[in-house]
Amino acid sequence: RSVYDDQPNAHQRFMEKLDACIRNHDREIEKMCNFHHQGFVDAITELLKVRADAEKLKVQVTDTNRRLQDAGKEVIAQTEEIIRCRVQQRNITTVVEKLQLCLPVLEMYSKLKEQMNVKRYYSALKTMEQLENLYLPRVSQYRFCQIMIENLPKLREEIKEISMSDLKDFLESIRKHSDRIGETAMKQAQQQKTFSTSLQKQNNINYGRNMHVGRSRILESKNEITLKRTFEEDDEHEEEVLTAQDLVDFSPVYRCLHIYSVLGDGEIFENYYRKQRRKQARLVLQPQSSMHETVEGYRRYFSQIVGFFVVEDHILHVTQGLVTRTYTDELWNMALSRIIAVLRTHSSYCSDPDLVLELKNLIVVFADTLQGYGFPVNRLFDLLFEIRDQYNETLLKKWSGLFRDIFEADNYSPIPVANEEEYKIIISKFPFQDPELDKQSFPKKLPMSQSVPQIYIQVKEFIYASLKFSESLHRSSTEIDDMLRKSTNLLLTRTLSCCLQNLIKKPHIGLTELVQIIINTTHLEQACKYLEDFISNITNISQVTVHTARLYGLSTFKDARHAAEGEIYTKLNQKIDEFIQIADYDWTMSESDGRASGYLMDLINFLRSTFQVFTHLPGKVAQTACMSACQHLSMSLMQMLLDSELKQISMGAIQQFNLDVIQCELFASSEPVPGFQGDTLQLAFIDLRQV
C-alpha cells in the first residue's frame, strides 16, 4: 500500500529491491545444488545398475506368471463349477423353505375351494379366517397370495348370496308346507287330548240314565264306539308321528345364521328374516273370500297359521337371538287380532249350525295346539262365547223349521195305541203318566197328538246340539248347565212360542185343531220338569243349586194356550157370524112357520157338536168358550132385531123370532158344557128375551 500510495517513484524502488532479493535467492539455490550434485550423480549411477537387474526380474516374473496361469486354468474351472453348484444348492434350499411356507396356504385354499364346491359354506368361512389370520401373512410377499387375498372378499360375498338364496328357498318352502305342518301339529294335539276327553264324556256326562234308559244305552254304546275308534286311530298314527323337522329342512336357516354371524352381519340377517316372516304372516292371515262356505276352508286357514307359529317356535328354541319371545308374542298378538276379526266376519255368514259347530271344534283344536306351544289363547275362547250365541241363533232357526214341519205334519188328533208295545215306545219318547188311562184296555188313545212326543224329542236334541258346542271350552259344569238352560229357554220362549203363535193364527186351523193344541201345550208344560231333570243329569248339577236357572216353558205354553183359547173364542164368534149372515127373516110375514129357523138349528147343532169336543179341555176354558158363544149369539140376534134399517115388523115375524130365541134358551138350559151353576148360561139370553 505504501508503494502505491506514499511516495512518487516508490514502485520503481520496490521493483529494484525485489530484483535484488531474487538474485540473493538464486545464489543460495546454486550453492545448494553445487553441494548436492555429487550425491545426485551417484544415485543415477546406482539406478542404471539396478535397471538391468529389474529387467531380468521382470522377465522371470512374467514367465512364472505365465506358467502359473497355465497351471490354474483347470482349478479355476472347477472352482467356478463348485461355486455354481453351491449357489444352486442354496437356491434349492431357499425354494424348499419358501414352498414349505406356501404349501399350507395352497392346501388351505384348495380345501376352501373344495368346501365351496360341496356347499360347506360355514366351514369355508372358518378356512378363510385361518388363511387370513395364520397362513397368508407368512407369504404375503408373493403375487399369488395377493390374488388370494383379493379373492377372499369375493368368496365371502358369494357365500352370503348363496346362503341368502337358500334362505329364500327355505322361506318359500315353509310357506308351502305351513298348512301341512299345522295340520300335523293340530292332529297331534287332538290325539293327545282325545283319550282324556273321551273318558271325561263317559264319566262326567250322564245322558239321562235314570229316566230314559233306552236313550242312555244308545249313547253309552256310541261312547264305547268313540273310544274304540280313538284307540284304533292312536294305534294307526303312533308310528307316523311327524314333526316340523320331518316336514321342513331347517338347515338353511342355521347355516345362513352362522354364516352371517361369522361375517359380523348377524343383525342384518335377523332383521331380514323377521321382515320376511312378517310379510308371510300377513299373507297367511289373509283368508279366502269363500272360506266360510266349507269346513275345509277354515281348516286350511287354521293349519297355515299353526304351521307358521310352530316354525317360529322351533326357530325360537333352536337358535339364539334370531327370534325372541318378545318378537313371537308381538307377532302372535298381531295375528290373534287379525284372526278374531276374520272369524267374526266369516262366521257371521254361516247359517248352518253343523258348520258353526265344526268351526268351533277347529277353533278349540287350534287354540289347544298353540297353547301347547306357549301362546296365550284366552281371547280365542272369549270369541267362542260370541260364536256360541251365533251357533244358538242358527240352532234356533233350524229348530224353528223342524217345529214348523212337525206342526204341519200333525193331524191334531189323539194318538191311537193298538197294543202295549206301541204304548211303551211312546212312553220311552215322552214322559206321559195317566193312571186312569193305564187302567183302560187296548186299543186306546192318548190325549195328545203326535206332535207332542216329537216336539219333546226335538227339544232334547236341541239340548244335545247345544251341549256339543259347550264341550272342550274349559268351562265348569255349572257354567255349562247355565248355558244349556239359557239356550233351552230361548228355544222355548222364542222359537217354539213363535211357532205356536203362528200356528194358532193360521186360517186353516179350526176349532178342533185349536182344542188339540191346548191339550198338547198342557202336556208339554207338564214335561218341562223332566227337561230340567234331563239337563241336570247331563251336567251333574243338582236343581237345588242356588245359581241354577229354571226353564221358562211354563209361561211359554201358558201364553200359547191363552192365545189358542182366544182364537177359539174368535173363531166361534166368526162361525156364529157366518150362520147369522145366512138368516133370512121375513119381517112382514103374517104368521110364524111354527118351528125355529133352519139356520139357527144348524148353528145350535154346530155349537153342540163343537162343545162335545171341548170335553178334553180344562172346564174353565170350555165354560168360557160356551158363555162367550152364547153372549155373542144373543148380541147378534139383538142387533138384527134392533137394526135401524128395519122400518117395520109384523106379529108373525115376532113370533118366528121368539121361536128362535126359545131354541137358544133351550140350548143354554141343556148344559152343553158341564160346570155351570143354575141358570148362569141362560142369563146370556135374558136381555134378548126382554126385548
UniProtKB/TrEMBL annotation:
One matching Pfam family: Sec15_C
User: Which residue intervals define the domain Exocyst complex subunit EXOC6/Sec15 C-terminal in the entry?
Assistant: 380-691
Keywords attached to this entry: Exocytosis, Transport
**Gene Ontology terms: biological process:** Golgi to plasma membrane transport; intracellular protein transport; vesicle tethering involved in exocytosis
The record's section on Gene3D superfamilies has:
Dsl1p vesicle tethering complex, Tip20p subunit, domain D (1.20.58.670), Exocyst complex subunit Sec15 C-terminal domain, N-terminal subdomain (1.10.357.30)
Q: Where is the Exocyst complex component EXOC6/Sec15 N-terminal domain?
A: 17-186
Q: For this UniProt entry, what's an example GO CC term?
A: plasma membrane
Record family assignment: Belongs to the SEC15 family.
Q: What is this protein called?
A: Exocyst complex component 6
